[in-house]
Automatic annotation (TrEMBL):
Source organism of this protein record: Mastigocoleus testarum BC008
Keyword Metal-binding: yes
Superkingdom classification of source: Bacteria
GO MF terms held by the record: metal ion binding; oxidoreductase activity, acting on CH-OH group of donors
UniProt-annotated binding residues for NAD(+): G110, K111, A112, L113, D114, T141, L143, Y147
Cofactor(s) essential for the protein: Zn(2+)
Keyword Oxidoreductase annotated: yes
Full protein name: Oxidoreductase
């Protein structure tokens, strides 16, 4: 499969120039495969700079030891603390130069991998991603999110290509807390709710394919997640890990920039400004899906969105995804903070504006505090007010 695809559509605007980074050049997956990967890493470079989070590195250390000890590789280790931020990248640039690194190896969750990919992109070096949890598809994608040192989302960067090598070792993923896979399910299932809104009407072959893959991904997750979470390491568990780490990445790869995130990720981005690191990416995104569906219900009277929200609430309860602000440890959020989150979510460059209708600050706040509302009566569908705020928000 070609790694890059360039296509010009009939209208020559800057948006119509479509560059796709479809997939990593190579994906290795299996149980315990990390131990056998040093020669494949060496094909990309013999002086790897390992970029990791301190916590995930110590959890993964036993699994990483064989490649760290491999004679053909001269490893140096560095951390991306405090976050995937401009300050961390500056420190890592220095570390890469000092070590004369010729390949970057990211080990960890989404933020460690985003940092490693962006560092490699900036230094024009190959990159290997080794996810230690199934919490996102960051190991696959040609995209990095940049945060402040305090963990607030600032911007994302599209990269020239997907990683050169992705090593998915199920033994390693199994060491991660169960909560990370649950979050990964939340992040992956968002693909359907966002891609169907942003691109569901597209007539472009690859985008149709991406949207349909997102539907398949949703169905796999709805059907298999509960069983997978009950038996870590089982076949069905590996299938769900593949869904969150790999298939979710495939959709972003085929769909490209036009098959964008919509309100669920926009709400996530807003929430990072008050949540800090109290909840993980996929948990905030999962809650964001409910907010998006609530907006579609309230502002469009969309019955399908209403049914989808009820279905997801049941699913979330089964697997432990957050249904409301209190589940994100934001039960005590003040009205001012909520307003701040909504304002950031609605900033002019936000993907929330890809919804087929416009959303006011008040409407967004109303949706954010009513994600668990029972099926709407006509009255509540048509009358958007902040009256629900009192039950969830203290002034
Ligand atoms: Zn995401």
């Amino acid at each position: 499969m070609p790694n890059q695809l360039t296509e010009k559509s009939s209208t020559p605007t800057s948006n119509s120039l479509l560059t796709l980074a479809v997939a990593p050049a190579k994906v290795m997956r299996g149980s315990g495969i990390l131990a056998d990967s040093s020669s494949i890493i060496k094909n990309l470079g013999n002086r790897p700079l390992l970029v990791a989070g301190k916590k995930s590195f110590s959890l993964a250390e036993t699994h990483l030891q064989p490649i760290m000890d491999a004679k053909e590789l001269n490893f140096a280790k560095s951390y991306y603390t405090p976050d995937c931020s401009e300050a961390s990248l500056k420190t890592l640039h220095k570390a890469a130069k000092e070590h004369k690194a010729n390949v970057i190896v990211g080990v960890g969750g989404g933020k460690a991998l985003d940092t490693a990919k962006l560092l490699a992109h900036q230094l024009n070096l190959p990159v290997v991603t080794i996810p230690t949890s199934a919490a996102t598809c960051a190991a696959w994608t040609a995209l990095s999110n940049v945060y402040s040192d305090d963990g607030a989302f600032i911007y994302d960067v599209g990269l020239a290509s997907c990683p050169d090598l992705l090593i998915l070792d199920y033994e390693l993923i199994k060491t991660a807390p169960q909560r990370t896979l649950v979050a990964g399910i939340g992040d992956a299932i968002a693909k359907w709710y966002e891609a169907s809104v942003s691109s569901g009407h597209s007539e472009e072959t690859l985008i149709i394919a991406a949207v349909q893959q997102a539907r398949v991904l949703r169905d796999i997750l709805l059907q298999k997640s509960s069983a997978a979470l009950r038996s870590p390491g089982s076949d069905i568990w590996c299938q769900v890990v593949d869904a969150t780490v790999l298939l979710a990445g495939v959709i972003g790869g085929i769909g490209g920039a036009q098959c964008r995130t919509v309100a669920a990720h926009a709400v996530h981005n807003g929430l990072t400004h008050v949540c800090g690191r109290g909840s993980i990416h996929g948990e905030k995104v999962a809650y964001g899906i409910l907010v998006q569906l609530r907006l579609e219900e309230m502002l469009q009277g969309n019955q399908l969105a209403m049914a989808a929200r009820q279905q997801l609430l049941k699913f979330y309860a089964e697997i432990g995804l957050p249904q409301k602000l209190a589940d994100l440890d934001l039960g005590e959020i003040t009205l001012t903070q909520l307003q701040n989150v909504a304002q950031i979510t609605l900033n002019p460059s936000s993907d929330i504006h890809r919804l087929p209708f416009s959303v006011s600050l008040e409407q967004l706040m109303a949706a954010m505090v009513s994600t668990t509302a029972p099926i709407d009566t006509k009255e509540s569908t048509n009358c958007i007010s902040l009256s629900g705020l009192n039950s969830e928000v203290e002034q």
